[in-house]
Amino acid sequence: MKKFAFLAAAAAVCAAIATPATAQFAKPEQAIKYRQAGMALIGSHFGRMAPVAKKEAPFDAAAIAKNVEVLSVLATLPWAGFAPGTEGGDTKAEAWSDAKGFKQAEDDFLAAMGKLKTAADSGDFDAFRVAFGNVGKSCKICHDAYRKDN
Ligand code: HEC
């Protein structure tokens, strides 16, 4: 009995590993909702730092570091929602026909996010301001190429 339970568990793990990422969404609409929710959270946690970067709000190093920590996790989320076969939402067809370019834009964004994390952790305002601007550019580059104008 014990042995059977172990084998069943092992089989379940193997099945989970063999399942493609797309299978985490039963329908394309769920993937679209997921990526939009992820982007909306990224927009909120990124955008709230803009007044600080523009010197319109005081720089609270600890608060910025904490927010960037949250943003770093959020930044990893939306991509699973752009799986093949989930065309739609506000994403241009180019995100799939030019999958390499889209992946590059994702990688450039994540690299810029890594630098923002280092800068925020350093507590240095100028380092934060520069890194924040570079992340913003990486958002825009991807949106210009792969997001529909509304
Ligand atoms: C690699 C590409 C890429 C990067 C990088 C990226 N986005 Fe997006 N974003 C998209 C696409 C594509 C959509 C449209 C998703 C859809 O509706 O299918 C989108 C949608 C959004 C939305 C609308 C979400 C909604 O409610 O529907 C917001 C807000 C947003 N992005 C903010 C950001 C911010 C802020 C950054 C940078 C910190 C960023 N994005 C980085 C591709 C990207």
Please state the second-level CATH architecture.
Answer: Up-down Bundle
- Compute the number of structural domains: 1
End-to-end Cα distance: 59 Å
Main beta sheet, described?
Answer: none
Poorly predicted sequence stretches spanning 5 or more consecutive residues: none
Principal-axis shape: globular
Counted by DSSP, the helix tally is 7
Structural class by sheet pairing and helices? mainly alpha
Per CATH, the class reads: Mainly Alpha
* Average of the residue pLDDT scores: 91
Q: Rg from C-alpha positions?
A: 19 Å
**Ligands and ions found:** heme C
Written as H for each helix and E for each strand, in order along the chain, the element string is HHHHHHH
Number of strands: 0
Approximately how much beta-strand content do the residues carry? under 5%
Note the quaternary state here. single chain
The residue fraction in helices comes out at: over 70%
Spell out the blueprint of helices and strands:
Blueprint: H1 2-18, H2 28-47, H3 50-53, H4 61-74, H5 94-97, H6 99-122, H7 125-146
Helix pairs in contact: 2-4, 4-6, 6-7
